[in-house]
Design brief:
The chain is mainly beta. It has strands at about 10-15, 20-30, 40-50, 55-60. The protein has one domain. Helix content is about 0%, strand content about 50%. The chain has a 4-stranded antiparallel sheet, with no helix packed on it.
């Protein structure tokens, strides 16, 4: 499976095994929702196997600040 957002770079920051039957991955959507140099939106993926089945969960936590212009 490939995850993309047109015009937004996905930068891998961490991956690793979390047991014999589990793995985790984290990537940052560079430029999405950022108002400072700190990353604002991540993509977390968790894979696990149980009874011969592969399950993959995607989550996209955000630290993006909601701003509004007033005038």
């Amino acid at each position: 499976m490939t995850v993309t957002a047109e015009g937004i770079a996905l930068a891998s920051v961490h991956s690793g095994l979390r047991g014999a039957d589990r793995a985790g991955f984290r990537a940052i959507w560079r430029g999405l929702g950022e108002v400072t140099p700190d990353p604002a939106v991540a993509l977390d993926r968790r894979r696990s196997t149980t009874d011969g089945r592969l399950e993959e969960v995607f989550e996209s936590p955000t630290r993006a600040a909601h701003t509004s212009a007033s005038g």
